[in-house]
Write a structure and sequence with these properties.
The chain is α/β, with parallel strands linked by helices. It has a single domain, classed as Isochorismatase-like (Rossmann fold). It has four helices and eight strands, in the order βαββββαβαβαβ. It has helices at 36-43, 137-143, 156-169, 190-200; strands spanning 10-15, 49-54, 75-78, 81-84, 110-114, 148-154, 173-182, 204-206. Strands 5-2-1-6-7-8 form a six-stranded parallel beta sheet, with helices on both faces. A two-stranded antiparallel sheet has the order 3-4. α4 links the parallel β7 and β8. The longest helix has 14 residues, at 156-169. The two termini are 14 Å apart. The relative contact order is 0.21.
Length: 213
């Protein structure tokens, strides 16, 4: 599905290309760093480029070690919100929270920090995990006349998925660039589950080669 060259109504949304999600990080996505050159090559094709960062305080609710007796992969309920537990990752001010060194930062128009509240996680670039507290991205994009959101980054089955689905819920056309994302696949099979969910919610799947220069 070739996408038209004029993308004045579009944004490239780059999700969480951070050290902790790349090989060597505390919550590494296998081969997660291999998508970065393709992401870099796409930036100049968009008039607007937004990147997100997980930016967690120490002791964040999503960290397994914040819940004595729990381990990564467990699920807890906190303040009425179901939360999957992960290894500590992307702690504010640490090297793990930095963008991967290979990611080109120069074209970024906005860096959005999410998951900044100790008691509430944020997978989506649009809403916190209570599904009602906005990050501000929807209003920012609509003010700029954006109607199409093209999504790349990490991880496909978590933050990319929920960002893509929330983009549709906010009234945008939403596309995942399949060769510019990889999944963590925890628990096993979650990548396929995420793809079925996204496609069932009218998220489009394209390749970077579908985006003409």
């Amino acid at each position: 599905m070739k996408q038209r060259t004029d993308r004045t109504d579009s944004v490239l949304l780059i999700v969480d290309v951070q050290n902790d999600f790349c090989p060597g990080g505390s919550l590494a996505v296998e081969y997660g760093d291999t998508i970065i050159p393709r992401i870099n090559s796409l930036m100049h094709r968009f008039p607007l480029v937004v990147a997100t960062k997980d930016w967690h305080p120490a002791g964040h609710v999503s960290f397994a070690d914040s819940h004595p007796g729990s381990k990564p992969g467990d699920t807890v309920t906190h303040d009425g919100v179901e939360q999957q537990l992960w290894p500590s990752h992307c702690v504010q001010g640490t090297a793990g929270a930095d963008f991967h060194a290979d990611l080109d930062r120069k074209p970024l128009n906005l860096v959005l920090h999410k998951g900044t509240s100790v008691n509430l996680d944020s997978y989506s670039a649009f809403f916190e995990n209570d599904h009602k507290t906005p990050t501000g991205l929807e209003g920012y994009l609509k003010t700029l006349g954006v109607s199409k959101v093209y999504i790349a980054g990490l991880a496909e089955d978590v933050c990319v998925r929920f960002s893509a689905e929330d983009a549709v819920a906010c009234g945008f056309e939403s596309f995942v660039i399949a060769d510019c994302t990889r999944g963590v696949d925890i628990p096993k099979g979650s990548v396929q589950t995420a793809r079925r969910s996204m496609q069932g919610k009218n998220v489009g799947y394209i390749q970077s080669t579908d985006l003409k220069a």
